[in-house]
C-alpha cells in the first residue's frame, strides 16, 4: 500500500510532502508541499457569477519563476519553496450523499486558501554582521482576499524581492522590493508587473540600509523602553496613534522578541545588555514567522520600516516615540 501522511486531517500522498525544514521561512499553521501537488492534486477555484477560473497558485509561481530567470539570467536559481495553509475540502459529484467515513481519496477535492513561496538566488549574496544573506524572490496568494462570489475581475497578488538571512531564514523586505497588492487579470499582465518590480528594485540601497543597522546599539534600558512602548501601541487612542509609526506585530510576537533578547542563539543581547539594531530587526522578523500567510509580508515590511526609522532617529539624535 502506498505510504501517506496526514496533516490537518488531510491525507496527502507521501511523495507530495516535503521534508519539514528545521527552520522554515514562515511557520504559523503552514506546511510545505511540492509544486506538482498544486498542479496535479488541487482543484482551481472559480468566480461563481461567470464560472471563470482564478489564476491558479502554480500559475502564479511559474510566472514569477519565469520573470526571475529572465531578470537574473546567468545566476544560480533554486526551485521554488512553497508553504500552504487553510485547506478547502470538497467532493466530486459522484460522492454526494456518501458518509464522510466512506469517502475514498478519489472522492475528495482540495485546494489551499493561502499560499506563499520563495525562490532563492544563492549566487547573489552578501554578509552583514557575520550573517550570510542571499537574494530571494517570492509571492503570496490568499483567496480569502478575493470576492469569489462575483464575476471575474482583477485578482490580487503580493510579490517581493529581498534577502534571506541564511542563519535563520528570516526574510528582509524593503518598500521598493514589495508590491502588497498587485492586481492582474491574466498571466501576461502579472508577468509584466513582476518584471517591473524586479527591474526597479534597488538592491544595493537595500543592502546599505541593512548594513548600517549593525553600527547602532540600544542599551538594555533603551531596549526595555522600546518593548514597553510596543506593548502600549495597540491601546493608544486613535488620534495619538496617527502621529506614531505603525506597529503591526501583536502582543504574542512582542513577547517572543523579549524572550529572544535573552535566549536567541544568534541575535540575543551582548554581555553588557546592549543589542545592535541588526539583531533587533532579526528578532522582529523571527517573531513574524508566527503570522498567517496573508499578513506575513505586510508585517515583514512594517518591521523593516520601523527599524529604519529607529536607526534614523539614533543617527540624527532626533525624537522617536518608541524610545522617548
List keywords for this structure.
alpha+beta, 324 residues, 26% strand, two-stranded antiparallel sheet, seven-stranded antiparallel sheet, 13 strands, 9 helices, globular
How many individual domains?
2
> In terms of per-residue confidence, which ranges show pLDDT below 50 for 5 or more consecutive residues?
1-20
- What would you report as the Rg, rounded to the nearest angstrom? 21 Å
Q: What does the largest sheet look like?
A: 7 strands, antiparallel
- Please identify the oligomeric state: single chain
- So what's the overall shape? globular
How many strands? 13
End-to-end separation in angstroms reads 64 Å
Q: Determine the fraction of residues in helical runs and give it as a percent range.
A: 25-40%
Chain-averaged pLDDT:
92
- Class from helix and strand fractions: alpha+beta
Protein name: DUF3871 family protein
What would you note in describing this structure?
- The protein is globular.
- It starts with a strand and ends in an 8-residue tail after the last helix.
- The strands form 4 sheets. Strands 3, 6, 7, 8, 9, 10 and 11 form a 7-stranded antiparallel sheet that branches. A two-stranded antiparallel sheet has the order 1-2. It has a two-stranded antiparallel sheet with strand order 4-5.
- The chain has helices at residues 35-41, 57-71, 187-200, 203-213, 220-233, 238-241, 251-263, 277-287, 293-316, and strands at residues 4-7, 10-13, 31-33, 46-47, 52-53, 81-91, 108-128, 131-142, 155-165, 171-172, 178-184, 217-218, 275-276.
- Helix 7 (251-263) crosses helix 8 (277-287) and helix 8 (277-287) runs antiparallel to helix 9.
- Strand 4 and strand 5 form a beta hairpin.
- It folds into 2 domains: 4-201, no CATH class; 214-316, no CATH class.
- The protein is built from 9 helices and 13 strands.
- The longest helix has 24 residues, at 293-316.
- It has 324 residues and is α+β, with helices and mostly antiparallel strands.
Amino acid at each position: 500500500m502506498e505510504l501517506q501522511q496526514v496533516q490537518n486531517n488531510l491525507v496527502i500522498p507521501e511523495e507530495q510532502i516535503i521534508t519539514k525544514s528545521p527552520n522554515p521561512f514562515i511557520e504559523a499553521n503552514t506546511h510545505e508541499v511540492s509544486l506538482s501537488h498544486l498542479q496535479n492534486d488541487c482543484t482551481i477555484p472559480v468566480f461563481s457569477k461567470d464560472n471563470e477560473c482564478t489564476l491558479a497558485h502554480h500559475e502564479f509561481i511559474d510566472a514569477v519563476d519565469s520573470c526571475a530567470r529572465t531578470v537574473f539570467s546567468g545566476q544560480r536559481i533554486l526551485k521554488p519553496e512553497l508553504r500552504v495553509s487553510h485547506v478547502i475540502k470538497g467532493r466530486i459529484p459522484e460522492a454526494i450523499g456518501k458518509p464522510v467515513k466512506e469517502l475514498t481519496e478519489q472522492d475528495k477535492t482540495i485546494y489551499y486558501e493561502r499560499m506563499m513561496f520563495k525562490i532563492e538566488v544563492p549566487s547573489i549574496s552578501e554578509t552583514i554582521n557575520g550573517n550570510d544573506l542571499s537574494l530571494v524572490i517570492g509571492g503570496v496568494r490568499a483567496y480569502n482576499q478575493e470576492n469569489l462570489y462575483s464575476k471575474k475581475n482583477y485578482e490580487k497578488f503580493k510579490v517581493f524581492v529581498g534577502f534571506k538571512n541564511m542563519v535563520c531564514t528570516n526574510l528582509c523586505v524593503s518598500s521598493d522590493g514589495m508590491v502588497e497588492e498587485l492586481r492582474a487579470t491574466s498571466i501576461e499582465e502579472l508577468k509584466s508587473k513582476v518584471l517591473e518590480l524586479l527591474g526597479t528594485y534597488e538592491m544595493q540601497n537595500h543592502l546599505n540600509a541593512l548594513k548600517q543597522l549593525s553600527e547602532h546599539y540600544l542599551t538594555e534600558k533603551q531596549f526595555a523602553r522600546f518593548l514597553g512602548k510596543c506593548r502600549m501601541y495597540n491601546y493608544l487612542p486613535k488620534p495619538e496613534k496617527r502621529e506614531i509609526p505603525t506597529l503591526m506585530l501583536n502582543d504574542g510576537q512582542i513577547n517572543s522578541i523579549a524572550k529572544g533578547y535573552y535566549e536567541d542563539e544568534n541575535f540575543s543581547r551582548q554581555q553588557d545588555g546592549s543589542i545592535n539594531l541588526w539583531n533587533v530587526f532579526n528578532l522582529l522578523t523571527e517573531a513574524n514567522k508566527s503570522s498567517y500567510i496573508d499578513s506575513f509580508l505586510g508585517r515583514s515590511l512594517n518591521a523593516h520600516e520601523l527599524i529604519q526609522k529607529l536607526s534614523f532617529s539614533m543617527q540624527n539624535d532626533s525624537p522617536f516615540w518608541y524610545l522617548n
